[in-house]
User: Fold this.
Amino acid sequence: MTPEFKFDFGRGARIGLDEAVFCEGKTVDQISAIVDAVKAKTGRLLLTRLDQSKYEPLFARHGAQLEFDPLSRTAILGQPHDALLMPPVAIVMAGTSDLPVGREAARTLAFAGQTCCEYADIGVAGLWRLLERIDEIRSSPVVIVAAGMDAALVSVVGGLVSSAVIALPTSVGYGVALGGATALHAALASCAPGILTVNIDNGYGAACAALRILRVMATLPKRSV
Amino acid sequence: MTPEFKFDFGRGARIGLDEAVFCEGKTVDQISAIVDAVKAKTGRLLLTRLDQSKYEPLFARHGAQLEFDPLSRTAILGQPHDALLMPPVAIVMAGTSDLPVGREAARTLAFAGQTCCEYADIGVAGLWRLLERIDEIRSSPVVIVAAGMDAALVSVVGGLVSSAVIALPTSVGYGVALGGATALHAALASCAPGILTVNIDNGYGAACAALRILRVMATLPKRSV
Amino acid sequence: MTPEFKFDFGRGARIGLDEAVFCEGKTVDQISAIVDAVKAKTGRLLLTRLDQSKYEPLFARHGAQLEFDPLSRTAILGQPHDALLMPPVAIVMAGTSDLPVGREAARTLAFAGQTCCEYADIGVAGLWRLLERIDEIRSSPVVIVAAGMDAALVSVVGGLVSSAVIALPTSVGYGVALGGATALHAALASCAPGILTVNIDNGYGAACAALRILRVMATLPKRSV
Amino acid sequence: MTPEFKFDFGRGARIGLDEAVFCEGKTVDQISAIVDAVKAKTGRLLLTRLDQSKYEPLFARHGAQLEFDPLSRTAILGQPHDALLMPPVAIVMAGTSDLPVGREAARTLAFAGQTCCEYADIGVAGLWRLLERIDEIRSSPVVIVAAGMDAALVSVVGGLVSSAVIALPTSVGYGVALGGATALHAALASCAPGILTVNIDNGYGAACAALRILRVMATLPKRSV
Amino acid sequence: MTPEFKFDFGRGARIGLDEAVFCEGKTVDQISAIVDAVKAKTGRLLLTRLDQSKYEPLFARHGAQLEFDPLSRTAILGQPHDALLMPPVAIVMAGTSDLPVGREAARTLAFAGQTCCEYADIGVAGLWRLLERIDEIRSSPVVIVAAGMDAALVSVVGGLVSSAVIALPTSVGYGVALGGATALHAALASCAPGILTVNIDNGYGAACAALRILRVMATLPKRSV
Amino acid sequence: MTPEFKFDFGRGARIGLDEAVFCEGKTVDQISAIVDAVKAKTGRLLLTRLDQSKYEPLFARHGAQLEFDPLSRTAILGQPHDALLMPPVAIVMAGTSDLPVGREAARTLAFAGQTCCEYADIGVAGLWRLLERIDEIRSSPVVIVAAGMDAALVSVVGGLVSSAVIALPTSVGYGVALGGATALHAALASCAPGILTVNIDNGYGAACAALRILRVMATLPKRSV
Amino acid sequence: MTPEFKFDFGRGARIGLDEAVFCEGKTVDQISAIVDAVKAKTGRLLLTRLDQSKYEPLFARHGAQLEFDPLSRTAILGQPHDALLMPPVAIVMAGTSDLPVGREAARTLAFAGQTCCEYADIGVAGLWRLLERIDEIRSSPVVIVAAGMDAALVSVVGGLVSSAVIALPTSVGYGVALGGATALHAALASCAPGILTVNIDNGYGAACAALRILRVMATLPKRSV
Amino acid sequence: MTPEFKFDFGRGARIGLDEAVFCEGKTVDQISAIVDAVKAKTGRLLLTRLDQSKYEPLFARHGAQLEFDPLSRTAILGQPHDALLMPPVAIVMAGTSDLPVGREAARTLAFAGQTCCEYADIGVAGLWRLLERIDEIRSSPVVIVAAGMDAALVSVVGGLVSSAVIALPTSVGYGVALGGATALHAALASCAPGILTVNIDNGYGAACAALRILRVMATLPKRSV
Assistant:
């Protein structure tokens, strides 16, 4: 039988983003084998979608080297990357239920050495909550907007800031929220121009996209508009 | 062969709303026969989804008795109902392309003797356009919000006014706007509580719902909250 | 890390509807923290989609102040609002399985001080059950119709009453009932004019919409039709 | 190249239903060749979905032997089958726009020698129209109910008659009527038990199903219930 | 609070089919209350979708009066109806996994006093299994075909018999079997004319439809074709 | 501005299949430019989805070098490839309306030097039509089955032959035939094992797949089973 | 009651593929009865989708005669078929999570006496992993590509090899991966010509299709291209 | 009647992107009125989705001030903005049919003063076409990938470059390409991390997103990674 995985150690060098381990659908043994392989090589790894029930046997084997966050279901092996020294990313979240997804983005940024500011529970049903923070949000070069249901927050933010805006649709909601598809479609069909989108609940992907933008920014010549 | 229609002349008495003629999928001859039947009875009829190309032969037969509006594709036979004497309905529209649908609602209200105010092209991509009119909108007992694409305007209005809010999703947009389904789903999954919805592009239905609300209001005892 | 919630205490003043807590997807700790915050401020809160298994630890912390109804999975903290003094809302339900959703609407109205009458298990497969209650139903200014499967009850009621009619599609049924989507689509495409709709299983939303209508009614001048 | 068709002349003997020609997607030449083949054999043929624009060149070739009905877009070659001598089928139609589909069923029955009664424009938005004809409808052994949009008529009829009920969903409606899918799903998920369904707009199929039922009835021993 | 159910005792007289209890989504207490009400009236009841785990507490209360079949998840209270004295219905099943659904139809027929013959595991992947039984199947006035996945069996049977054919799509299969939707759509779009369809997994409905057909047959005059 | 195309002249050498030109969505000028480029290089090209209206101006420019077939909407520039000397592919078609798609496959095979046999209009509604040709079909190493609607023919053929079977779902049908999706899903969920599928109406792709199979066969050592 | 299964012992002779037992939705007793029937006849059987929890009681009854593989959830009764003596099939897998599905294909091939080579975790996000193995893959007459999410690997392989390519879409992924539908659709709409597809997660079917191709190859005359 | 539009002249100052006119669904008169309003104010406007048939009467009124490009269906009024002085954006297109959408992005960038490089017809079916240009593409800070059908090009590019990658799914393809939904879903579910997506065929939106990224880059401090 063939070996079950082939870790892409060159990904960081190639595209500036380390390969992370998506733990859903993998057994504890498979995850542990990858952790062992990484320990023997770079010693640094991000694990996403890691349930508490899988974390516990992994902790028994790898101990405190794995730093676990139950809300976002992420674990970090080893030290994060050196600080990127770019302005913080804003992570704007519509409701309390969007926190796990937004936090996955925050943890992915932290692993990569990038700071962020979280703005929780400021959906448009109470527009004042957004408006009183908008100047602060506007100062971030990249704004991630995590929202489920109708995702109206995405369009409102998109119409108020000139930064790069990444919609992060979440599966929050029921009925015609359609497991996040309505939020996704609303973001893609936004009336505000130039909104970008990632897959439903893909906090990891939203952060990776932000990192692509920030890394490329860091290497370009400054110019005043 | 059986007669092709059976007009519901009792509908007005029964539910307070006259039967209207939905012209899509009907031939000019069928429509004309209904007009003749109504002329012989009440003399008053609303026709919706009437294309210019069908209006012309109808005009040749029924002349100026049919008052036609090409933007909303509606025609009115005879005099509108007596004025309802209720405060005007607000019809808030996200973009220029939502005008035909919003105007269908306006014409249906006018036929029933109800006034309205139209607020066109005030989508959330330019939030200031809405905010500078919001106090005026708030004073209407019923607010119809016509929007396509992401329909974010519905949730923003719903979070700012205490009136009855009727979302009127439109088929404006392309791709994942899905012919209005995304706007419809976003309205139904709105983060603002107590939003009501009608079918895509159903300006007639939104107006009928407003009339149900206003008629029942008119017969209830006043009370201060 | 940021605080996890930002309760919208001003919502009642702004749109006439208190913010309620949707408990699905929230942990007991998150819910309990909100209850504590509300206790310290207004002392009055509606909780929806609260499972028995979450209610029990909450009861251990907050005791009899939380009045729980297992059928509708709602809890009420503190005293309901003062009575609205409007005629009762009719809640018409097609079958026994629609009761939990209809009851969520009833509880939301009760929390807001509004009375209602429930009519259970009167679907159109036995039309006589509806017809013998229709005069009573007709006298309500707002009629909520909770139905799953084909939701034919919505159109039949809509053709018989002149009140405001709010369709409340439920996820009752299997196969092409599609988790409530068929009921929702049937309500939106109803042959009866002026029907309004909320999201699938959204008893809370249907009640909020009824409250918007009744509140605005209460402040308008009386007029005879 | 191979011959383009292989007419199933044995179908009538095998299952009691002649093969008919579905003309959509066939060229005038293909249809004409089939007509020629049938003329040379049985001389009797039903053509469905035949547009006026295709009928005209066919008429030029085959003349008055083809009896054409523009409303149902059907043509009949030769004489219908001998009368079946069974009670008439009831064809109940919700609205004027359902007539073409209902008429296709009527024409298919007529071709097979079976009588029917059509009940047009008696949808549930005006329930009295149905109730005043229900005793007559109830006396038919097979009732076909043609309805689009929400198809509520199907369930209401199904709850009032003990006959075999065949739902014939039509593509009438717009938006979430979804080209007839909502009517189809509502019929399949009907709260009335024992409803049977055919494809959207399939008047021909509904009639064939009625014929299967009536033919088998005709050969069974009588028994009192 | 309102009573939770309103049993339709007149349904048998009205449409020839007793109301049955669909147990999914009902609590044991609700079901038991209905059983008590029926015991006090007619003493005869069919229960469908009754899980073993719900049956056990019901058995504790109502004992051997409830005759339970675990495969079809049905229970029968009291004696079945008198024998209908019509030829048996054929229930043709594509695979072993279709048995529970086919058996639900068989039990519903048995409750109504109607006999049937079951033909299990004769899908078209082994066409010989069908062909060696086809003459026997052909002799039934009504043929129910239970099939999931591609439901090809429906069209093959429909092309070989002249009886009334009721497709009973099942949720057997995975991936694009789409929980039975592919079988349903294939049956509705069948190339064999005059096929009728019920909802996915609706064995009860297929049997009710067969009973409608057989009851009406029983009251019609005999005639030779 | 960049050049608009970059023809893949190496594809034949790389994967054994020439690049063909899919003409839908291309202008006559774009197609003509590709034809010119090919003329200057290999002189041999297959064009698919070429409407008569586009063919005519192309004929005016390139004349008899383009051999056009209106039924399949294909044109061939230059001489077909040398004969492959493999047994003919069987192309089995359910109905007359499946001919254009089946013929596209036949033309693609012919262009590649591969023979085929077409079997038209032998759907399972008249099973005898298939059974009388099945021995002949069985002798082909690759069988392409073109069918729309329920695509039951795919499963029946798949259960009768041991050859490689390629389902070619067509968009023939209406309503829940869903533009070919039902045929596609039925083929993928077939009860016969080992059926392979291509996209809806993709006669070109089915033929390319057959060529991949036959080419690789031609280079393998013979062995008796 | 009827016997519950009718095993198709002739399938191997008829189409070259033994009937296998799909264990999902079957009880342990049903599976055990089939195993008993096969033991009494051919003694050789493949079981798929067999959960560990069902395997254990089967092992208790049938012991070591059932060889079980937990990763692919397959069991084999008795000895595999004699070796086919054809070159190995390549099974290319995009990620670790695609292994169970790919392994089901491998086990099905092994049961039939066919060898294969597995290439795990070589998705296009790290294209070098594929490119360093492509020459080896290219030498297989049949290449199975198992991939979920976007299934981009299918098109890349299809553009690099001339072999028969069978896409095996998997349900790996979340959100708009849609349980494998996106991978399936991407494979069917591939820009590489001549790709063939099976149902989502259908490793058994992909292997059966490969066997159909290889068996027919084995009986054809050799020819050089 | 209300004025029909309310141009958002402040949008450029607010979010760095001028409001553009989406001409689909607008009449020539409406478009012309907007052009007049802009002429009177800023004199500079981008028009998208402008059909030739609408352009002609506009040209008659506004003459050479409107510079029209028929391939992308865009027109530009007045002079583009001053050059942004950032490195060019790469626009990578899979096939010839993706050109109109890619060109819409190019024109939007040009209007904003931003340069770009187009790479046409380099889909993965001929991977060499991409690989020979990849170093050049890699040097762009933002890469837009326009692809329809399976959109495999998006993942391949995403795995090879570290720049910001914007997927621009197009509606190119048929059948299960689903009007671009398969390309969209494949891009969102990409196995390459950090891919961002816009709506189907939304070349304008992809360019706006690129401008947001580049503008914010231009104002940030340089830093080496």
Observations:
- Residues 89-218 of chain C form a domain with the Rossmann fold fold (CATH 3.40.50.1970).
- Chain C is about 35% helix and 15% strand.
- Chain C has two domains: 11-77, 89-218.
- The radius of gyration of chain C is 18 Å.
